[in-house]
């Protein structure tokens, strides 16, 4: 069977030819008009980015190279002895558009495990951070510092040919994905369990299996399977979300994958994006405290209105693109339904009840375009159930995951020779001049 590098080397010329033909045949075709409301409305709805790994349908949700989440759950190889999708099989699919065999998946796991240890200066850097520094800040800084290792930056300095850029972007991306669990686990242990040993990486275990061991939850099989699913599902959500878009933008200046992904993490750290899972849990626990563990639908409704009347958003609800419930939310709810240990969990039951009431309240409130739950409505609550209760850490786990999609696209950006990103901006006076003329 073919290795990941051999598989990609075969696909790259095909994709390059596809792009060339697209440009030659349809370069002048229009994908829609730009309205003033798009420009002042966060570019919502504008089709202005090329992104290979996944496409988001407003109603159906995410498809990874055309595969829906339930499809992926059927065809992507799980871990040895596990049932859920793993990071390696999702990464293979994102990078190549193909479903890996079990052997290919295991080979990738082995490669990632072999490259998972951190250079000493990175360990020292993380150890020097104050424990009160937000874990996402720690992660972003450590990822940026890893650019000391960048093969892409070194190759650029040597003056390698443009056509070879993608091979170095791939090496850096695989190296970063391999090291993220050790980085993220060290931040967790330092921040919450200082001075305790961190488990070593096992050569024959999958990336997330090793991550969970290093976090200190090696005997928690439910948590291992949950994080495998979580990390695979959060891997990519097409290109326009803040984290993915940032990596692509920064990478377009030929900043190396470490710098590009570091920038991306600082966007993920915002409360309307990746920090929402931490916010949901904080909000859920406050609600649980206020209405008790067996709160009724009416009590939840009242609490939702209190939040909205206080001028706050309901965290975990709404979406920039999706207009129906997020299939990632559905997949996590299905996970809750089949795991016996989650059936009687008060926090999981509260998530479920809230998802039955909140859409009606948000519809009546009348502001949000999508009153349905997104993936964050439940993701942090599951972590809390499994004993990882330090909610400031939750976005770091998202950060380990989003690397799969954001770095995949960086490889394709370089393989396809995409240029530096430089959209045109306008001032309000300039817009007025244009619209008043027409
Ligand atoms: N609760 C209350 N109001 C909301 C909500 C919500 N959950 N979602 C949107 N709105 C409001 C929004 O603030 C805006 O109000 P205003 O006109 O006063 O500025 C109005 O509804 C229209 O917003 P939309 O066009 O529906 O949403 P937009 O695309 O601007 O923003 C989110 C999308 C996800 C930022 C927004 O729905 C939100 O703030 N949700 C809560 C935070 C959250 O769950 N974020 C996680 C996103 C998923 N992720 O994985 O990153
Ligand atoms: C994501 O996974 O990035 C979020 O759902 C936000 C988005 O897609 O805009």
UniProtKB/TrEMBL annotation:
Subcellular location, record wording: Mitochondrion
InterPro entries assigned to the protein according to its UniProt record, in alphabetical order: Citrate_synth-like_lrg_a-sub, Citrate_synth-like_sm_a-sub, Citrate_synthase, Citrate_synthase_AS, Citrate_synthase_euk, Citrate_synthase_sf
Active site: 273, 319, 376
GO CC, alphabetical: mitochondrial matrix
Nucleus recorded as keyword: no
MF (Gene Ontology): acyltransferase activity, acyl groups converted into alkyl on transfer
Keywords from the named record: Mitochondrion, Transferase, Transit peptide
BP terms from Gene Ontology: carbohydrate metabolic process; citrate metabolic process; tricarboxylic acid cycle
Cleaved signal peptide residues: none
Pfam name, any one: Citrate_synt
Family: Belongs to the citrate synthase family.
Protein name: Citrate synthase
């Amino acid at each position: 069977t073919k290795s990941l590098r051999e598989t990609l080397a075969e696909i790259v010329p095909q994709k390059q030819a596809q792009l060339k033909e697209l440009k030659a045949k349809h370069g002048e075709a229009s994908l829609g008009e730009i309205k003033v409301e798009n420009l002042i409305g966060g570019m919502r709805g504008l089709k202005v980015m090329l992104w290979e790994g996944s496409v988001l349908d407003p109603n159906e949700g995410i498809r990874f190279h055309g595969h829906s989440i339930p499809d992926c759950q059927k065809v992507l190889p799980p871990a040895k002895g596990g049932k859920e999708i793993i990071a390696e099989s999702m990464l293979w699919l994102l990078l190549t558009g193909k479903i890996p065999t079990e052997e290919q998946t295991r080979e990738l796991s082995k490669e990632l495990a072999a490259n998972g240890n951190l250079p000493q200066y990175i360990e020292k850097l993380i150890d020097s951070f104050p424990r009160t520094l937000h874990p996402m800040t720690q992660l972003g800084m450590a990822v940026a510092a890893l650019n000391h290792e960048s093969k892409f930056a070194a190759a650029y300095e040597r003056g390698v040919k443009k056509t070879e850029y993608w091979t170095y972007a791939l090496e850096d991306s695989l190296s970063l994905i391999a090291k993220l669990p050790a980085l993220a686990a060290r931040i967790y242990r330092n921040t919450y369990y200082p001075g305790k040993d961190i488990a070593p990486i096992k050569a024959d275990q999958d990336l997330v299996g090793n991550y969970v061991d290093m976090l200190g939850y090696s005997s928690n099989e439910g948590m291992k399977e949950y994080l495998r699913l979580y990390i695979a599902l959060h891997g990519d959500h097409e290109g326009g979300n803040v984290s993915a878009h940032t990596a692509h933008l920064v990478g377009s200046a030929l900043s190396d994958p470490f710098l590009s992904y570091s920038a991306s993490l600082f966007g993920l750290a915002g409360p309307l994006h990746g920090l929402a899972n931490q916010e949901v849990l904080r909000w859920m626990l406050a609600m649980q405290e206020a209405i008790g563990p067996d709160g009724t639908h009416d009590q939840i409704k009242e609490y939702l209105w209190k939040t909205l009347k206080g001028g706050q958003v309901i965290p975990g609800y709404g979406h920039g693109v999706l207009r129906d419930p997020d299939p990632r939310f559905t997949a996590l709810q299905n996970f809750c339904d089949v795991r016996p240990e989650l059936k009687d969990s008060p926090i999981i039951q509260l998530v479920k009840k809230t998802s039955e009431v909140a859409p009606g309240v948000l519809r009546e409130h009348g502001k949000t375009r999508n009153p349905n739950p997104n993936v964050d409505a439940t993701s942090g609550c599951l972590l809390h159930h499994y004993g990882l209760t330090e909610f400031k850490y939750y976005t770091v786990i998202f950060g380990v995951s989003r690397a799969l999609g954001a770095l995949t696209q960086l490889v394709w950006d370089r393989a396809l020779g995409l240029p530096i990103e430089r959209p045109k901006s306008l001032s309000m006076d300039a817009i007025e001049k244009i619209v008043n003329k027409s």
